[in-house]
Amino acid sequence: QGAGPSRMFSYRPEGGGAPGRAGIARFLARHSSWGFVATRAARGKIQGIPYGNCLLLSDGPVNNSTGIPFFYVTPKDNTVTDLLKNPMASLTLPEADGNFCRKNVIDPEDPRCTRLTLMGQMVTVPPEEVEFAKQAMFSRHPVVRKWPRSYEWFFMKMNIEHIWLQSWYGEVSPIAVEE
């Protein structure tokens, strides 16, 4: 396992983790394979208007969860075009695949299904972290290796500045990044 970038937390793959809101946030970051990224549009008639897209993500290789979301993206994607002009974004990770929602047959958009929203800057992964980003993305999403090379894929990550967790009706709680 390669070393990871700074500001990463270590998550025990056997489950567990810290109790409380921070533990739930770590769980969602670890188990989410996709998320909804919201940007501010940087093109045409929708310039300045909020724009969103679902993207694959990984917060580290299967046995080395970090809490930092990594993305494999192309500049041909409108979301990436937006991010290259204004790197501020939010990333929402729904508990869509969680046991609570599935076991209780609850729609993932039901407020009882937890949602984590991370906000911060989306940046290009620096050269010293690219190998880690490759391990992170390709270990969880092997199919992306087969995506057409002509699309000029590269890695981005989110430098998290704010964390919000919605875990029940109307209950939205901020979580300190340090947690």
UniProtKB/TrEMBL annotation:
It comes from the Eukaryota. Its main location: secreted. Keywords: Glycoprotein, Secreted, Signal. Pfam families: CREG_beta-barrel. It is found in: Secreted. The keyword Secreted applies. GO terms for cellular component: cytoplasm; endomembrane system; extracellular space. Residues 21-179 form the CREG-like beta-barrel domain. The keyword Glycoprotein applies. PANTHER family: CREG1 PROTEIN, PROTEIN CREG2. Belongs to the CREG family. This is CREG2 protein.
